[in-house]
# Entry
Amino acid sequence: MKTTGRLIALSLAGAALGAPGGAAAQALKDVRTPDTPLILKSQGSFYVGGEKAQQTQVQIGLGPAGHVTVNQMYVRFMVPQGGDGNVPVVMVHGATLTGKSYETTPDGRMGWDEYFVRRGHPVYVPDQVGRGRSGFNQAPFNDVRAGAVTPNTIPGFIRFSDEVSWPNFRFGSAPNAPYADTQFPVAAMDELSKQGVPDIRVGGAGQPNPIHRALSDLAGQLNGAVLLGHSQSGPFPLFSALLDPKAAKGLVLVEPGFCPPLNDEQIRTLAGIPILVVFGDHRATWTGMGDTTVKFWQRSFESCQALIGRVNAAGGKAEMLDPVARGIRGNSHMIMQDRNHLQIADFILQWIDERVARRRGASR
Amino acid sequence: MKTTGRLIALSLAGAALGAPGGAAAQALKDVRTPDTPLILKSQGSFYVGGEKAQQTQVQIGLGPAGHVTVNQMYVRFMVPQGGDGNVPVVMVHGATLTGKSYETTPDGRMGWDEYFVRRGHPVYVPDQVGRGRSGFNQAPFNDVRAGAVTPNTIPGFIRFSDEVSWPNFRFGSAPNAPYADTQFPVAAMDELSKQGVPDIRVGGAGQPNPIHRALSDLAGQLNGAVLLGHSQSGPFPLFSALLDPKAAKGLVLVEPGFCPPLNDEQIRTLAGIPILVVFGDHRATWTGMGDTTVKFWQRSFESCQALIGRVNAAGGKAEMLDPVARGIRGNSHMIMQDRNHLQIADFILQWIDERVARRRGASR
# Structure
């Protein structure tokens, strides 16, 4: 195959990063079929939020000036037959990724989305505002292309290289050097690489991210939901809960990039909502980026321990799920794709049963 | 809600384009639940194709230089219980859209994806290479932002404004002026607007679009499939079939932007494959863009009639599904979202039964 990129160079060295290139076409063949059918009351997709933006002919790039919609959030859902009385779970993905994170794993196993449905929960999987099927605002890029504004005014896109993913997602200390106990299916590393999309970090420049409101709106429309975030979106459940505490029935922070410093009033609000933080193994390592002495994920872990302490001191019910403390080793940052991902899911499901709402009519 | 765009202006005039802004949050409430459960043998997602690209630190925007994957194609699938012996159907979306086109309609009705599954077919819905969950190559944009190359080297994004969608998708002669007989649920126009994403027209500058190969690869991996394209992707089934004629069991061109001029050898190859072209009503109208005297869709229709004639003259089985000729009026360009979209789907399903392969074990 040929590359169509004008400014990139194809490299056969890619074959050294995980499975050989020839294995790429095996993705469909590797998808496993469950032993029992999945029985859904309903499935589909819809959008939450969004605003009209008036754009110029140059900004739209097709036809005269007019209006488009920006800042909407795409959501795909599955409701299990007999499970619509159970608390819905909203699963949000991390940086440079999409809702695909929770679907079929890179090596073809059932994703958390289907597993939670099979355990009785309606599941809602968004694409973050500005990514995937939620789209983004192309106007600044077309303005720069036309010479209407200076190039440095466009947002910068980020991507995780394969070389960064290895240490940052804590599959191993370096590319192709997996930890002996890693739970990530590293032979499928090339499939994870395909999940990457450009990320302009909506709201990343100090502005509120519209997804906080979209998530709290979604939880409200669902008459209450468990909000689960991962990595970049790990703190989003907290921010959304602060916008509408009644709609947030439970907050699950999976490998959050950080737990934010909150004021005492915010802590008191969160003390009314069950909170679970989940971290994998090998936290005291570097990310493959920046200062090698900074243990980014250990620092995140500690910031969340501090949050848990403050919430509980205010009368709340916050807890840490640390598989290592249970003798389970080798979990990665992409814990929803790890080989023992259903074991971790079971811990979360048990926590929902005990802290949020016990499932009724669960089907498997 | 606030807009985060720096170069756009929010306009309350948006409320004049379809439903009032306040109705936007009603999307989930409007989603209808089917009368009977959906029973799936399997569902999930995977990628087809993709190549490693070596990128600089500036191009990646996060961490040092390294490799990312580009030109991969995301595919979501559902296989009905008892239907895995039936011919799979691959449904590709049009310009500035994603696979969402085939999911729940803007007004909350079942999408073609689920309907075809309920009628017994495994269904595969990609996001075109360079859009949605398939991502795109961000390197040129980051290079321009850094001043490394000149601004006019980046691809231009396109979007359909609401003002263009009205005439171009043939909902009405002008914004908020629906045809009296329109089949499109125009009250949900704002929900369709949310489906828009920036489109860099991969392969649009005279280079082969990698999705042609990805689709033929997917059809091959499925041991044969019906390839269905829409609008921009309307001709893709033809191009993919020419790459691997044996894997293309049937080609459905829904409202293709054009039927391409092919050489006699290509026509002879296509003569071995059943072909169905589908067009809606109100074709002899302008698009809201460019020359008002050009009847774009009528021209597309005629180019496909010409193709059908040539294929059949070479011994093939190509035909036009024109609902107007059957007395069905008012179908739009977004025919898979029209109010009578299941009636149109039934015509296509009947054609698959008669021309491609009769369904076994169909479930409803």
Q: What stands out?
A: Chain A touches chain B through 128 residues (CB under 8 Å).
